[in-house]
Amino acid sequence: MTSDATPTPSPAAPSSSPAAAPAVSTAPSPSAAPATHRTRVVVVGAGPAGLTVANILRAASVDCVVLETESRAFIEQRPRAGFIEEWAVRALERRGLADGLLERAQVHHEFEFRFAGARHRFPYGELAGRRHFVYPQPLLVTDLVRRYADDSGGDVRFGVRDVELHGIDTDRPSVSYTDPDTGRRERIDCDAVAGCDGARGVCRESLPREHVTIARHDYGIGWLALLAEAPPSSDCVVLGTHPRGFAAHMARSSQVTRYYLECPPGDDAGNWPHERVWSELRLRLAADGAAPLTEGRLIEKRVLDMHNYVVEPMSYGRLHLAGDAAHLAAPIAAKGMNLALHDALLLGDALVAHCARGDSGGLRDYSAASLRRVWQYQEFSQWLSEVMHGASSGDPFRAGVATARLRRIFGSPAAAAAFAELYIGKDIDP
Q1: Closest Cα partner for 419 from 410, 427, 330, 428?
Q2: Predicted local distance difference test score (pLDDT) of residue 428
Q3: Gap between the Cα atoms of 308 and 38, Å rounded
Q4: What is the pLDDT confidence band of residue 34, given thresholds at 50, 70 and 90?
Q5: Triad 21, 25, 29: Cα angle to 5°
Q6: What is 118-143 written as a DSSP string?
Q7: Are the C-beta atoms of 318 and 191 separated by less than 8 Å?
């Protein structure tokens, strides 16, 4: 249900992203005279979205260059989302990008809600006919970069600095950056830019504010994200609602478990020593007949402030955003990486059609097509947040409504089927 997909950490929590985006230019051309190169598409960002786009382009013999500000070692170990919906897995499989995932991923087809001291299993796989694959983002990124760079000889440049976009509203866009080895400015002329550099990247900041709307929603809650060196205490995801706050348990491997604890937004992870964490987890996940939690050393603690945003439109001129650069989904419903992959599959195919066949229809429709799913998932995340956090809201009305929703899910076959479809995501054929 939840995932490691990461909204903006609170100021007190460590962040693996830069604190501020570099300066951005949208001038028709750089003012300096850097060394100039040419490709069809520049992909900014080597996360799941950017690497999926790059692999689709490479497979279609469309020249592209991937620019990434971090090192390869960093992106291959950065902790992020782990739940991938089956439609996304099958879409990657059709493109030859899911070999490692299909070989090593865990498969989940049910989860357990715990509320009012009782356990309630929800067999969404049986109801929806689809499953979740648990495959942490670092493993997927490692697979994708290996396929693009090592197996296919794709051009990816790590550790670049001071990335700037130029002329995105003209027919001669370019991207410039500082080479980390030589310190020289380099410029790549291109036909299109895929902006896949996340919430703090330069691409979103390159969109003229008068041409876009950024819709935001702040949930007013925080989550303490934890990784424990401890075997899972259940055979499925466990979600607990409690007056003291929401809690979640999910396996990451046979020896590592992900936990979440609701906390105040902006809280300091240092306020949560080992004993306090396990005491709250035991309390909030308690239920009749539940096995005791297997405790272990906490190897990660960070506070996530829950909020969402959506950029409309996701395209401007020759720049097309994908993933967190275009929209952020708090990890409440495990939708972030799935939306990034949805974007990337649509955008990659649209860029191939444009560059290889001169068909620009897919690029014209890209933003509208992506946003339909983005808003569907945002609505579901907001609805589910009320279910998860109503009991701890301090508002008796919200708490009562949350309990009514839970009882309807488990008491009405029609409500259960609708919930299962929203939870696992509708099939697509990108």
Answers
A1: 410
A2: 57
A3: 36
A4: confident
A5: 145
A6: EEEEE-HHHHHS--EEE--HHHHHHH
A7: yes
Which residue, 321, 314, 318, is CA-closest to 53? 321
Q: What is the torsional sign of CA 225, 227, 233, 236?
A: positive
The greatest distance separating any two alpha carbons of the chain, rounded to the nearest whole angstrom, comes to: 70
Which residues have C-beta within 8 Å of that of residue 343, sequence separation ≥ 6? 49, 314, 321, 322, 323, 326, 370
Confidence of residue 35 (pLDDT cuts 50, 70, 90): confident
- As a whole number of angstroms, the distance between CA 386 and CA 201 comes to 30
CB atoms within 10 A of CB 383: 14
Lookup result for tokens 């720049």? 319
Distance of CA 173 to the CA centre of its chain: 27
Distance CA 40, CA 65 (A): 8
High-pLDDT (> 90) share of the chain, %: 85
DSSP label of 69: S
For the segment 245-280, what is each residue's pLDDT rounded down to a tens digit?
999 998 887 888 999 999 999 999 999 999 999 999
What 8-state DSSP symbol labels residue 9? Answer: B
Q: Among 290, 331, 228, 256, which residue's Cα sits nearest to residue 106?
A: 256
